[in-house]
């Protein structure tokens, strides 16, 4: 029976063909030099027979060459093209990428590959390089990759690398800055009262302040005469072993962007000042002129009273005096404003100045003889034009702030505080041994190894997840099924925009750009419990949760993490099956991709954290409902999982977070065995809720016990703040 024409037309639809053999066949034709109609010659004269149509389809350079100036070549004319700027080796790699759609790539060859890919305008090779660069991000590679991203205008990748550099700023400074092996330049910033007291001592005949010389933690004193107006103590000490800071190799624009960011995670604002000194000293003849601009990125109000500047070279020492001048201006406190002159005296002064204008000129020249005097003059002029209002009848000087004088704040416009490195862990919610949800939280200080009570939630919740977005801790969902989102503001929790669906046992992660992603979980749809594969995303300042592409499979009781612009969904439960698979969401292409590498064990109710670009997974429950003590780690750059030493006991529904080069595992359900301490026993003979904490030191590959929480909790939210 034949279909009518109208019926056939109704069934017409577009079908995409995926011929996997085309690229392999093109590669065979190219390698055997069959049907080639053009010859490309490298820098050394080596010839590569190619196909004009293939090159034009893959390369913007060849397309313009063949369809532009090359289009007028008559048949039989020379079809050879020499590329004087590309070596035969690099040209061979580029042509292999075009024909084979595959390439062997290494970090050391990235620069050459990007050079030829950009010159020949090969989008597929450029995309492959960017993908490889994202997988190479680490403390040692961040700066070289950032320079490449800037050079070739990879804006999205550049943004991600800048955010990574901000978050790992302390890892980009030389280790000698943390524990000086040699000598350092010590600049002690004195308060205004200290400077006043020193001046009074000098006026009374006391000797000049002594400079303390510090060397390898030992102290000695070295008397030295200083100008009376110097408000700093300094000592110049040399560091015998020079170590170049990675940030010395970035451009001024990139360094300025990093140092000006509120997201810059620093131990102390003096780290920013040290980075500037190192950068300028690295190439002083070219960079001296940028010192003033870079110093505008420093927050003087966050600088400590005592500054330690590491001096590797004589050039470092030469920068100390400009730093002192800048610090003098930055710490300048306007002198008290004198009371208004009586009308008759004010009139006489005005007449005197009008009769001798040269006096006014010489006065202004005198007052502007130094930068500090310039600020003083600016303050006096502002006080004259905008006198400080006062209802006091006292003739005593009235102290005012810099704002009264309209003095521009040092370092540019007012900005928020730096993020600073995470200093604490916060454990939120969870349930006790009787499955009662908790509304309490606890804070852990690793310096003293102590837990203390934290802000309480407005309602009890368990199996919620938390993540740090910008400078805020966010708590999402939980049991009983909730769509609530809360944000920790100072010392209390405040409600935020609700999820579109109530979720518990979901994965929550903060991604590049400060966006918050919620992955899968369990919910109730039309009074039916369902495991979700949907994903929601919230951007800071947004007004709604945005639906993102679904995961490939539904997952609840999963772990999640973010590394270099990619989000990972790890393990979890799908129906009755427990997963060992991992899938990755690429923020650039906005699609989920399954990873070939699977964990050695299927895991649900597991915990994950990230340290130095590596993904760590702790414990959980397998499909046989056995709790696990095993730990696995994966480096996305290697694409394989490795076993690590196990935890002291099996545990599930625990929390994991990275803090100060350690990975902490907190709380959870455990199997009770002799010698294991839990806060209370559950009704089950073999199950307890854990209060103890252990931490993994990745450099040594060992776990050690830490102080336990005040109360055991399982199904908790945990993050570093």
TrEMBL record:
Gene3D superfamilies per record: 1.25.40.420, Kelch-type beta propeller (2.120.10.80), Potassium Channel Kv1.1, Chain A (3.30.710.10)
Keywords: Kelch repeat, Repeat
PROSITE patterns linked to this entry: BTB
Functional pathway: Protein modification; protein ubiquitination
InterPro entries reported in the protein's UniProt record: BACK (IPR011705), BTB/POZ_dom (IPR000210), Kelch-typ_b-propeller (IPR015915), Kelch_1 (IPR006652), SKP1/BTB/POZ_sf (IPR011333)
Keyword Transmembrane helix: no
Residue ranges of every copy of the BTB domain listed in the record: 36-107
Designated name of the protein: BTB domain-containing protein
